[in-house]
Amino acid sequence: MEKSEEEKFRVRKLEISDKGKGFIELLRQLSVCDSVSDKEFEDRFRELSSLGDDHVICVIEDELAGKIVATGSVFIEKKFLRNCGKVGHVEDVVVDSNVRGKQLGKKIINFLTDHARSVGCYKVILDCSLENKVFYEKCGFEQKSVQMAMYFD
Ligand SMILES: CC(C)(COP(=O)(O)OP(=O)(O)OC[C@H]1O[C@@H](n2cnc3c(N)ncnc32)[C@H](O)[C@@H]1OP(=O)(O)O)[C@@H](O)C(=O)NCCC(=O)NCCS
């Protein structure tokens, strides 16, 4: 029986084998991402895994094609403010250009915000370009303050 879109596109945590399923190529649709060797990938994967629930990268795999088509991450910041509160930082959200507009981006964001809520964060924040503002509003975010950045070359 043919799988429904819902079954076909499930969100799960990143696995080490996802490098072979186009995970790095997908990130390249978001920003500069030079080639990553298997060893570099494994080392970074283990480093991030050791952070447990404090750093989660999720993906959606097109299981028929064996290809990663969407991803996003959330990092949990621990504060002294707000009774030693926690804040979730959403980063690196991208959906493969071939499957945009199918609610996959929203699924990724829901997974990440559910995670942040479940570990006790009082808010989730992210930076985005103006062109993605409406997308994040549709995911339940509202615009706050101004983004600042300093890049180190
Ligand atoms: C932004 C991005 C993640 C959205 O993913 P997507 O899977 O196409 O989005 P969805 O299908 O889940 O969209 C959810 C809703 O937002 C709307 N939406 C999505 N992108 C939008 C945009 N750029 N402008 C206006 N509305 C948008 C959709 O129409 C949909 O509306 P609906 O619920 O009323 O039907 C995807 O376009 C992408 O990967 N872009 C390139 C990388 C990028 O800019 N990432 C964000 C970094 S901050």
Features:
about 150 residues, alpha+beta, Aminopeptidase, five-stranded mixed beta sheet, 5 strands
Ligand names:
coenzyme A
User: Count of DSSP E strands?
Assistant: 5
Give the rounded overall mean pLDDT.
95
Output the CATH topology. Answer: Aminopeptidase
Q: What would you call the structural class?
A: alpha+beta
| Low-pLDDT regions | none
Q: So what's the CATH class?
A: Alpha Beta
The CATH superfamily appears as: Gcn5-related N-acetyltransferase (GNAT)
Radius of gyration: 16 Å
| Name of the CATH architecture | 3-Layer(aba) Sandwich
Beta percentage is 15-25%
Which strand order does the major sheet show? Answer: 1-2-3-4-5
How far the N terminus sits from the C terminus, by CA atoms, comes to: 53 Å
What is the helical fraction, as a range of percent?
25-40%
Spell the H/E element sequence.
HEHHEEHEHEH
Topology (SSEs and partners):
Blueprint: H1 5-8, E1 11-13, H2 23-27, H3 38-49, E2 55-62, E3 67-78, H4 81-84, E4 86-95, H5 104-118, E5 123-125, H6 133-138
Parallel strand pairs: 4-5
Antiparallel strand pairs: 1-2, 2-3, 3-4
Bound molecules: coenzyme A.
Coenzyme A (COA) binds at residues 30, 93-95, 100-106, 128, 131-132, 134-135, 138.
Describe this structure in words.
- This protein has a single domain (5-125), classed as Gcn5-related N-acetyltransferase (GNAT) (Aminopeptidase), CATH 3.40.630.
- Helices cover 30% and strands 24% of the residues.
- It has helices at 5-8, 23-27, 38-49, 81-84, 104-118, 133-138; strands spanning 11-13, 55-62, 67-78, 86-95, 123-125.
- Strands 1-2-3-4-5 form a five-stranded mixed beta sheet.
- The structure holds coenzyme A.
- Residues 30, 93-95, 100-106, 128, 131-132, 134-135, 138 line the site of coenzyme A.
